[in-house]
Every structure is written in structure tokens, then in C-alpha cells.
Amino acid sequence: MNKNIELYDLAVIGAGPAGMMAAITATSHGLNTILIERNSSPGRKLLLTGNGRCNITNNASLNEFIEKFGRRGSFLRTAFTKFSNKDLIEFFESRGLEFKEKENGRVFPVTDDSKSVLKILETSMKKLGVKTVYNTRLTKIQKIEKKNIFIIKLDYNTVLKAKKVVLATGGLSYQETGSSGDGFRIAEELQHGITPLNPGIVPLKTKESWIKSLQGIRLDEVKITIKNPKMILDGASLLFTHFGVSGPLILDNSSKIIPLLEYGNVDMILDLKPSSTREELQEMMVAAFESHGKVDLKNYMKLLITNRMIPIILKLTNIDGKKKMNQINKNERNSIINLIKSFPITIRGYLSLDKAVITCGGISRDYINPNTMESKVVNGLYFAGEIIQGCASSGGYNLQQAFSTGYLAGLLSKLD
User: Fold this and answer.
1) Which terminal CB of the chain, N or C, has fewer other CB atoms within 10 Å?
2) Rounded to an integer, what distance in angstroms lies between the CA atom of residue 120 and that of residue 111?
3) How confident is the model over 180-214, as pLDDT tens digits?
4) Which fold has domain 7-198+357-409?
5) Chain centroid offset of residue 153 CA
6) Cα separation of 200 and 250, whole Å?
7) Comparing C-alpha atoms, which of 128, 122, 118 is closest to residue 56?
């Protein structure tokens, strides 16, 4: 080993929110830290979050945060406890950035600008003396057990040494921001298991070709039922696209739906009028027989559903929209109501990982100590952020996970 290679207490790979927080935390505890990033600047993906407004966290309780990460969300309990949403807000507020709470507990900076969040992280690193290296890509990590040292090989034949390493290279989503999957490759080489990498918070593709005619329609009042396994989704809007469905209701639940596609297409039933029962719709249409008898069916239906869905409803029920209301028989009326209350679409796929907001899957939690984020396989190697298995819906939960696991991984005040 070349003794002239500079030795750091800690090398952090990846300058996203997790990596920057790990570097800030470790350096504030007195460690000589270097932060390595393949892009020309830090926080490329951070700048895109919340459509550039940066939904940094959520005002939810600890238990709610854990629940958002699914069946094994308790893995993150220590991270969220050590560095909670309140701790995160305090970190930025103490450095001059104020926040506001929006719908469903989502927290944004008052600037509505993710650049203001990144600026504080960069300023904090600079003040603490974190050494940063950009435009540099990790190629290999090797642990020299006898010396308890990591050899970190970078491109351009650059090599450095570190006593500890935090791997925070992100997932595979938004690849234009540098999420190339290098961290997964390195972790596998170091004998860590990787769970399937699926997209999270991603639009879904449908089988029906007529879906294109609904492109751009947003349904603010809709309920979705999936029969097998039984699942009811509501409380947010749905957006039709030229290839399928998107919007908060779909994006927030895509990680639940995508695994079902392993067994074939997923049948969804949309209730287009969840605030009205079938009986109430029946009464409305029967009453319209008396009060709007000479009105065309297609014109009356504007009172029930959005205009552009009317041709699809009429096509699927095979009813002539020019028929007058007093010409509609009971069977036709029931067909229309049944379709409004049980509108079927078939999910056949989803957009690729590089179109997803976040990666679900990653380094298996079985290989990571939840109390420290340290590898159970390689002492001194830590993980933080999206590279770790698991994801939540949108709303600030995933960004909080990145900051919390980064903080926990950066608590390296005692070196071996």
C-alpha cells in the first residue's frame, strides 16, 4: 500500500441529502471527512424534489413515518428517533431558513425553492471544512482487514484511504441526476444482498386503448378498489395520461400495485362518484325522467361526470347519447350507473425506473444494523439514503429518510 496516499477518518460517497448530512454530522464530531460526488455539483436530485419546491419532510408522528415505509418500516425507528422531522426543521431554522406546512402535513421552505435548502447544506459543509471532490466516480472499495482501512478507487486512477466509509449513492431513479446504480454494484462486490429494484412513485400503464382520449382529465373525487388482494385507494386525485394513469392517488400507491403485476394484469375498479350511492344516482336519473325528459342523455350526463368521460361511458354501455331522457329504459339506466360506480381499467405495467421519483428496493435491511446504519458484513462501512431497501409514498417521507439515515450513519465520533 502506498503510504503517501492521504488517509481520511471518513469518506462519504454521494453528495445527495443523505451524503451531505452524513458528512456534516461526522465533521461536526471532529472527523476529517471527504465527500465524493460524480456530478459537477451536489444535490442534483434534491433540486428536483417537490417540483423544485422541496417537500423536505412531513409533520407526521414517528409511528406514521414508520407505517409509511411498510411492513418492515420499524427498521428506521432509530434513525427517525435520533434525527426526527422536528430535528431536521430545527437544523435549517437555526441556519436561517423558515418553513411552512401545506396539505397533508407536507413541509416546504417558505422560499418554495429547493436551492435555499441546498445552499444551507453547502454552506454548512464549507464552514465545517468538509473536503469535497466533484466530477469523480467511485469504481471500487476494498477493505484491508489487517489495517482496518478502506482503499477507495476512483476514476482517473485516483486512490484514497479512509478509516470508515458511508455509501450514499442513491438508487436508479432520475438517472440524469447521476443515480447510476454504482452503489449497488459496489455493495454486491462486498457481499451484500440487493432486493429487487422497482420504481416507486411512478405512473402506471393501462391495457385499454381508449385511455388516450381521456389524457389530461383529473378526477379529484374518485375511489379505487382492487379486488385481489383487497385494497381501497382514495383521498387524492387521479390523472389520466396518454398511456395510463398518474396523479397523487396513483403515484402514492404505485409501490403497492407494482408487485401485484408479477402475477398478471391488475384489475382496478374506479368509483367516479364516491359521494353518491347507487340508490341516490337512481333517484336522480328517475327524477330527471320527469324534469328533463326532452333533454339528450349526453347533455344530462354532464351533471354526473366530467364531459370528456361521457363518450367513453356511452361507448362501453352501447347507448346512444342522443336519446332523450324519457326514452332511457331501466336496463340502460342501470348500465350507466353501474359504470359510473364501477368503471374498470386494467393495469398492465409501469414506467421505467429512470422515470420514477424513487427506487423501491436496494441493499437488504438484513445486512444493515438499524441502530447505526453500519454493515453487518463489513465493519466500518455504512449506508444512508435511497440505496437502502424500502420506500414510502410522496409527502416528504423519503427525503426525511435520507436526512435521518445520513445523520445516523454520520455519528462516527469514536473511531476503532
Assistant:
1) C
2) 13
3) 688 999 999 999 999 998 888 899 999 999 999 99
4) FAD/NAD(P)-binding domain (3.50.50)
5) 31
6) 10
7) 118
